[in-house]
Each structure stands twice: as structure tokens, then as C-alpha cells.
Specification:
- The longest helix has 17 residues, at about 115-130.
- The protein has a domain at about 145-260.
- The radius of gyration is 22 Å and the shape is elongated.
- It is mainly alpha-helical.
- It is built from 16 helices and no strands.
Length: about 260
């Protein structure tokens, strides 16, 4: 086929995923050639071309060749599937196709922390497009939230704040404790998670909102607003206090005329 010959002539097929294109079932470039090429570009092309293809899919100008993606997935050995599910077109898959391939791959044994982190990024991008489907991935998001690996915990905090509605006491407490972390990025992510949970208070359980507005959390956030070493954290803490009806110790001191 002409399209296969063209791809074979480029260095895109030097990757193990790219070489799989040569062995896929016949017909992937028939009447849906444009969608197939766009999908291939998203998976294998240099950054500029891939970004152009992605912009076209996001705008609705191009469509994704789901059949091609499924064929590549079936041809992939287990060790390559995490890489495929971390590629740009994965987040554009229809919900049923994404769920089947993502969960089968994410739950396979021997997945490295890096693979999980990259796939978690894909999951977050996918759920940004399909937030109502978040409940299907609650188990994975909670596991990320509970992880001791920083990059995984950060993803867990982000998705918990953005998408989950139900959280147990232990997991809520876990978010609160991250406000006391020595890691500035972890503190910021915990603040941001609480912020997003409050912004979705009509969607989350009352217990979740009550925790976000609790005196224990408010005191921690006040401390960060007044004394956190990271300026971004201080700004985020002040915003959270404002949205939750509280105020920072620094602001309270100014309003009451207190001085050091």
C-alpha cells in the first residue's frame, strides 16, 4: 500500500510500536485513510506533526481511527501496551474502548512506577473529556492517592479533587496530612485538591465537603497561607481560605490591628 510504503520510508517505524504497523491486518488505509494517518501521526510522528494532528482531533476537523488503534493494541506485546496507552490518541478513544484497554493494561503485573505515572496522565486527560465516567476508575485513582511514590501521589491528588465524589475518612485524612508534607509540590497539590472538591461541593458527599471546611483543615491552611516557604503555596492557601469562608492569620492580624 502507498501509505505503508511512505511510512516505511521514514524513521517513524524505527520504534517497536511503529514497526507493528507493517504487520497489521489489511484495510487500515482504505476508505478511512485520513483518520488512519492522523492516528498514526499521533502515535509515532515528531512533536510538531503530532501536535497538529491532536489539534485537528480536538477541534473536530479530524477523527480518530479506533479500528487502527485497536489493531495496534492487539498486536502489542504486554510490555509495549503501557507505552501505547500513554500515546496522545489514547485519550480520544470512545469510553468503552478506552476502559477495556486501559484497565487491562494498567492492572497487568510488573508495571513500573514510570509506566503507571504516564498512564495516569492519560487517564486524567481522558476523564477531563469524560468526567461522568470517573466512577469506573475510582479504584485506580484511590490507589494513586495512597501511593508513597511522589509522581503517583500527585496524580492521585489531582484526579481526586477533579473527579471523585466519594472518599472515606482515611483517604480524607491522607489529603489533610499532605498539607504538612516537607515537599512543596505535594502541599500545593493537596491544597488544589481541597479547592477543587469545594468547587464541586454539589457533586461530592456532604462528609467530603464537611472535611474540607473543618477546623482542622482550616488551621493547617491558615498556617500555609501565613508561613509556607513557597509563594505559590501561600497564594493557593489564601484562595482556599477565601473560598471556604476563612481567612489567613496574616489577614486577620491586619484587620484587627495586631502587630508583632
Amino acid at each position: 500500500m502507498q501509505v505503508k510504503d511512505a511510512w516505511k520510508a521514514t524513521d517513524q517505524l524505527s520504534s517497536p510500536l511503529g514497526r507493528l504497523l507493517l504487520d497489521l491486518p489489511r484495510g487500515w488505509t482504505d476508505s478511512r485513510r485520513e483518520a488512519a494517518i492522523v492516528t498514526a501521526l499521533l502515535m509515532f510522528a515528531p512533536v510538531v506533526e503530532a501536535m497538529q494532528a491532536q489539534a485537528g482531533v480536538e477541534s473536530g476537523r479530524f477523527s480518530l481511527d479506533v479500528r487502527l488503534f485497536n489493531d495496534v493494541y492487539k498486536a502489542c506485546p504486554a510490555t509495549l501496551r503501557p507505552r501505547l496507552l500513554s500515546s496522545p490518541p489514547a485519550k480520544f478513544l470512545p469510553p468503552q474502548d478506552f476502559e477495556r484497554m486501559f484497565l487491562q493494561t494498567y492492572r497487568q503485573r510488573g508495571l513500573s512506577a514510570d509506566d503507571r505515572a504516564r498512564m495516569a496522565g492519560t487517564l486524567e486527560a481522558f476523564l477531563s473529556r469524560h468526567p461522568r465516567g470517573a466512577a469506573r476508575y475510582e479504584r485506580e485513582i484511590i490507589e494513586l492517592l495512597r501511593s508513597n511514590v511522589l509522581v503517583l501521589a500527585l496524580r492521585g491528588l489531582s484526579m481526586t479533587g477533579a473527579f471523585l465524589a466519594h472518599l472515606g475518612r482515611e483517604d480524607l485524612s491522607r489529603i489533610g496530612k499532605k498539607l504538612d508534607s516537607r515537599n512543596a509540590t505535594l502541599r500545593y497539590s493537596a491544597l488544589r485538591a481541597l479547592q477543587r472538591l469545594l468547587e464541586r461541593r454539589e457533586q461530592v458527599d456532604p462528609d467530603v465537603t464537611a472535611f474540607c471546611l473543618s477546623e482542622s483543615v482550616r488551621r493547617r491552611v491558615q498556617r500555609l497561607a501565613a508561613r509556607d516557604s513557597d509563594p505559590d503555596n501561600r497564594v493557593q492557601a489564601v484562595k482556599l481560605l477565601k473560598d471556604s469562608g476563612g481567612r489567613s492569620e496574616r489577614s486577620a492580624g491586619r484587620r484587627t490591628g495586631r502587630s508583632r
